[in-house]
Amino acid sequence: MSLVSFVLTQEYVGKSFWALTGSLTNLTFAFGIAVYALLGYYIRDWRLLAFVSNSPGVFFFLLSFMLPESPRWLYSHGRTAEAEHVLQYMALHNGKDRLVVKLKPCKGAIRKDDSTPGVLNLVTHPILRWRTVILMYIWYVCSFVYYGLTLNAGELGGNLYLNVALSGLVEVPAFPLCMFFIEKSWLGRRKSSAAFLIFAGLACVFTMYLTENNRRFFFSPRILALYGKLTVSAAFNIVYIYTSELYPTVVRNAGLGVCSMICRFGGILAPFVPSLKSLGPSVPFGVFGISGLSAGFLTLLLPETLNKPIAETIEDLQMPVYQILKNKKAE
Q: Where are the transmembrane segments (predicted)?
């Protein structure tokens, strides 16, 4: 549900606003963690806690019926008149009542007789296939490290509820950082996501060599763990935006869905990593650190999307950077 909401929010606005809307959408997740810690402090019965935390979903489900369809999706499927109607509706509510919206027919639009692009195209199309493989690993690592550090908050000592709340609130500064860096031409989406993943990995690696009682270092394990949570949250936020720009409109929801599915495996495996402390107290952070570093360097194989037009159909895709590098090496 959150993934569909993210895609719909992105496609309601122009590409120049994607960094802002994507960051604001993901920001609610960080606040949710902090609020959940507060609820858990006052509501100790887990059944009542589950009921209170899930009840708002019913209200938002009913509100979803009032939302219009994505005009970008309608346009890519050849439903130009419906897309014009939605854009006219948006313009009217934005005070542009005299604006008349007319769209040119999309050249690569899907016809009624054509099969609708979906998950299978992510495997059969060579460009989409390699992008999907790389993105799946990046999403997996983001989830693995993100939830691993969140669930490991109870192992840092001190008040459990305070640690969980801090692990949520520490994400808040990550979003303005994302919005600043990913719009810079010298950094962009690709380098900024790679940098944040590498910094998250380094924070976890450095934590391996610190102990809570070691006062020779300015940073304690708790501070470094929170710093790792901040940087991986920033990377996770950028990956959402970056992935939505790498996929054409016709398969964007399918691509994000596949990446999100693989992402859940990281969340499933993350709770078992703290048990590796039986091998050594620093092993869990070593696993998170190596994962973050590998995903960060792998991100550099993807093409940059900053100030590039968004592909509406699969035919609009351009050859990615890593294929050009591969051809040069072959020569």
A: 17-39, 46-67, 130-149, 161-182, 194-211, 223-242, 285-302
